[in-house]
Amino acid sequence: MSKYDVAVIGSGPGGYVAAIRCAQLGMKTAIIEKYSTLGGTCLNVGCIPSKALLDSSHHYEDAVKHFEEHGIELPGEVKVNLEKMMERKSSVVSQTCDGVKFLMDKNKIDVLEGVGSFKDKTHINIKNSDGETETIEAKKSIIATGSKPANLPFIDLDKERIITSTEALKLKEIPKHMIVIGGGVIGLELGQVYRRLGAEVSVIEFMDRIIPTMDSALSKELRKVLKKQGVKFYTKTKVKSVSREGDEIIVKADDKKDKEVEFKGDYCLVSVGRKPFTDGLNADAAGVKVDDKGRIEVNEQLQTSVDNIYAIGDVVKGAMLAHKAEEEGSFVAEIMAGQKPHINYNLIPSVVYTWPEVAGVGKTEEQLKEEGVKYKEGKFPMRALGRSRASGDIDGMVKILADEETDEILGVHMIGARTADLIAEAVTAMEFRASAEDIARISHAHPTYAEAVKEAALAATDNRALHV
To answer: Which residues participate in FAD binding (predicted)?
Structure first.
């Protein structure tokens, strides 16, 4: 029987990062993955393939709508080759997954293919696709089994026309009308992909606004921009039934006035969030407790109810974000090594990779109001930047919320070109507990999108924005 210091179950961003950090810290490490490729949901059917399709569809939209204004003339009609677009996406996924395998080899981590299930707290059975089982012994284990798409109880997912994000990433045709149930990150990103490619897209959201967990200013601006791009929105609308008749999907719902409305399309993307995945883990055998939402129960050190077993990422409480899982993976490895790491969950940024991109970190304005915190606000529109005008990306803004008395930055929320990258400046500043004036006094290169962050900081500091 093979023996290890640490066994990691699941090879997504949390799992493989945890394995690498454990190996770096001198532990003999194994990673258990049920699929033949490493990387989990994020690399295989999540973050990476969706961004590949977002980029490809963005290039197509630019060619159709914007090349001419840049003085670029194309011979003939610009067409979408969906098969080739999907091939490129698959290639990007393959290269990225191969990169994780390289990292496992480089760090001398044993990759064990099969479903990992606990026999007891120190023994794990690994059943491969041929039905063969091997058992390993691990002094400590990290559960990093991630999540899977959630569903509504009355929806029968046929995975052909009533689909989840997994199937939406490998369609063989462009939908005529894609009905998207759920106005969160996944629904909006994939909705924009197919809208760019020519599909009619209708987004049905139960809450009163899209991306409801982010600052309402971002929600309002993103809705305005996507509406301009042709996406239709139906908020405060409760889906009651989804049925299929041949190639037609019929969605019935109650609108904000409790009146029944009906939507007809050829595809329905169900994107109502994700839920923890623990199937086959046999957590009970090890004594690991699971809460009523299916999440592994952990303490502040991400330790489960069993002292030598930890859990990270989507399978525990908190935002289901790849970078949150990565931080937790490193955190647990360092805890095991006797170090004293720290994660500030308030400073884990959230991003929507539509175009314009949406990003936020820290407290939203709604949260500050609810908590009774006195704050001041600084806003700056992207259209006021020379860089934005040069690229044509004039939609969006940056909003900084700072403590009214101390000027410490409490939240930064932005929508615009490259805000997924720009948010890192805000996270860095807030990790060092910077004030709005600190950012306002830092030189930002000109012309850049980042100047909007400086200008918003100036606006929060005695309303001193220079270019509005």
So the answer is: 51, 116, 145-147, 314, 320-323
Asked whether the bond before 356 is cis by omega within 30 degrees of 0, the reply is yes
Q: What is the pLDDT of residue 144?
A: 98
For residue 156, is it within any domain? no
Assign residue 401 the CATH number of its domain: 3.30.390.30
Annotated binding site for FAD: 51, 116, 145-147, 314, 320-323
Q: Binding-site residues, please? A: 51, 116, 145-147, 182-189, 205, 273, 314, 320-323
Largest CA distance in the chain: 69
- Regarding pTM above 0.85, the answer is yes
* Share above pLDDT 70 across residues of the chain, in percent, rounded to a whole number: 100
3-state secondary structure (DSSP) of residue 414: strand
Q: Are 413 and 360 in contact (CB under 8 A)?
A: yes
What pLDDT is stored for residue 323 in this prediction? 98
Cβ-Cβ contacts under 8 Å for 418 (sequence gap 6 or more): 357, 449
Tell me whether residue 84 is exposed, middle or buried, using C-beta atoms within 10 angstroms of its C-beta: 0 to 12, 13 to 18, 19 or more.
Answer: exposed
Report the pLDDT averaged over residues 308-318: 98
Q: Which two tokens stand for residue 283?
A: 């957590």
Q: Which residues are annotated as a binding site for NAD(+)?
A: 182-189, 205, 273
Q: What is the mean pLDDT of residues 446-465?
A: 97
Q: Is 413 tagged catalytic? A: no
Cα separation, 39 vs 33, in Å, equals 9
Question: Rounded to an integer, what distance in angstroms lies between the CA atom of residue 179 and that of residue 118?
Answer: 41
Domain boundary among 245, 272, 299: 272
CA 106 to chain centre: 28
Residues 452 and 308 reside in one and the same domain: no
Q: Are 14 and 144 in a shared domain? A: yes
Query: Token pair 């309002």 is at which residue?
Result: 220
Decide: 38 and 104 in contact? Cβ < 8 Å. Answer: yes
Asked if 296 and 288 touch (Cβ cutoff 8 Å), the reply is yes
Residues written for the chain: 468
- Dist CA 203 CA 236 (whole Å): 11
pLDDT digits (tens, 9 = 90+) for 321-376: 999 999 999 999 999 999 999 999 999 999 999 999 999 999 999 999 999 999 99
Catalytic residue, from 59, 66, 70, 446: name it.
446
Q: How many CB atoms lie within 10 A of CB 110?
A: 16
Cα distance between residue 203 and residue 232, in whole Å? 6
Residues 460 and 445: their CA atoms lie apart, in Å, by 20
Which distant-in-sequence residues (6+ apart) come within 8 Å of 189 by Cβ?
Answer: 50, 54, 352, 353, 354
